[in-house]
């Protein structure tokens, strides 16, 4: 099976699913508003992007094991390059989406802010893992660039042995000006024949082309590297702003709890005071009744006499 045709990269990846479910009991009357729709769209898009970056990371992990083997061809490296380019674009667009989500939930409820914070944390974790693996792949690409079996460039059509390494030919490669002068200016009987000079020149041009190709590929590898520092810097502002908002919400909740507790205590005190007041009222009423009965009896017996 092809490396890039395997969904999920042969690695267990988490499907973050849809966020079209209820978040903290958000009321249905506002469900159809533009703000709520935008919120759910951003959450779904970010979750999908995290899943895609996970797949790209799994692909890089498998590809790193094939660098330097028979599978390491120019086509293989081009696909690896495209995989990294697509992942980099996804990461950049997701960073922008997280910033939009952070601005959108500034005036939202606590559950929305917590959801935004969770997505941001998951994204940072995935990007960090992807970046570390990308650095390993880049190092291995550079290390195996000259030894990969499937990446040897075609020899020039002039024939002859493969370019030599070491000795006089290394001097040609390291000092091209001196090598050209040497090839053009030697005319003694012991000097190389014209055919040998032509072969050396072909070998020299071939090595120069190989070095230029290597430099170009190294620049391409370095261009593929993701600038995680800038991404984390962009997300840091969201963390600071939402962190302050969440702290404020938690503080308000704690204050509400304290106020509720105080209100309960006051209600209990009021109930106790009211109960004691009723008891005193009943006692006074009984006392008044008793006194009235005594007075009535006294008056009754006085009149009877």
Automatic annotation (TrEMBL):
Residues annotated as domain T-SNARE coiled-coil homology: 208-270
One example of a Gene Ontology biological process annotation: intracellular protein transport
PROSITE patterns cross-referenced by the UniProt entry: T_SNARE
Highest taxon above the source species: Eukaryota
Molecular function GO labels: SNAP receptor activity; SNARE binding
InterPro entries in UniProt: SNARE, Syntaxin, Syntaxin_N, T_SNARE_dom
CDD domains: SNARE_syntaxin7_like (cd15847)
Keywords: Membrane, Neurotransmitter transport, Transmembrane, Transmembrane helix, Transport
Family under the similarity heading: Belongs to the syntaxin family.
Protein name listed in UniProt: Putative snare protein pep12/vam3/syntaxin 7/syntaxin 17
């Amino acid at each position: 099976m092809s490396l890039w045709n395997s969904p999920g990269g042969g690695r267990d990846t988490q499907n973050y699913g849809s966020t079209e479910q209820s978040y903290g009991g958000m009321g249905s009357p506002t469900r159809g508003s533009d703000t709520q729709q935008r919120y759910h769209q951003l959450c779904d898009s970010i979750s999908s992007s995290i899943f895609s970056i996970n797949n790209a990371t799994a692909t890089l992990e498998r590809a790193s094991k094939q660098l330097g083997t028979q599978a390491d061809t120019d086509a293989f490296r081009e696909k690896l390059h495209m995989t990294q380019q697509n992942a980099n674009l996804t990461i950049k667009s997701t960073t922008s989406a997280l910033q939009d989500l952070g601005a959108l939930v500034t005036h939202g409820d606590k559950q929305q802010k917590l959801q935004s914070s969770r997505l941001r944390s998951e994204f940072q974790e995935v990007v960090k893992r992807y970046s570390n693996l990308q650095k390993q792949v880049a190092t291995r690409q550079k290390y195996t660039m000259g030894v990969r079996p499937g990446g040897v460039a075609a020899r020039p059509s002039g024939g002859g042995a493969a370019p030599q390494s070491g000795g006089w030919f290394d001097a040609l490669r390291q000092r091209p000006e001196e090598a050209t002068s040497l090839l053009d200016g030697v005319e003694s009987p012991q000097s190389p024949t014209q055919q040998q000079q032509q072969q050396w020149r072909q070998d020299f041009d071939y090595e120069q082309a190989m070095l230029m190709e290597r430099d170009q590929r190294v620049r391409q590898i370095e261009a593929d590297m993701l600038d995680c520092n800038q991404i984390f810097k962009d997300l840091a502002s969201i963390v600071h702003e939402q962190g302050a908002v969440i702290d404020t919400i938690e503080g308000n909740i704690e204050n509400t709890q304290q106020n509720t507790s105080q209100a309960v205590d006051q209600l209990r005190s009021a109930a106790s005071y009211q109960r004691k007041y009723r008891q005193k009222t009943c006692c006074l009423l009984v006392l008044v009744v008793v006194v009235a009965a005594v007075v009535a009896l006294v008056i009754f017996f006085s009149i009877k006499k």
